[in-house]
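Board notes (copied after class):
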Amino acid sequence: MDNCDHELIKSRANQNRWKTILVCILWQFLLPIFLDVHKVPFNEDNLRELCKSPPDEFGVTHVNLFYNKEASVCFCLLHAPSLDAVEKHHKKVNIQCEWITEVTNIVNDAFRMNLPK
């Protein structure tokens, strides 16, 4: 393969990477936000990793988690396409939510894209 072909392949890969990033940003910005509460079968390190995870097969991503270690309770703030997706997301790991509700942030929308205010 000559240098010209190599540069073309790199250019196309870079274009695809930026398209993927743009789609992810737009997708997260447009998705509803859900808040749920449930018991936590994981440790704090696992919870931190969840917040860094890409969207799962249901399109759910963690925006933030609020954890009460003594009560072993977690409040999850999630981007998801639907309530059903949030339920499937939890069911996959055998977590039963006490409740799930769609919410709107009226103070600061910067978290929608995980950007600083």
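Comment from the instructor: Residues 32-106 form a domain with the Alpha-Beta Plaits fold (CATH 3.30.70.3090). The first helix runs from residue 3 to 30.
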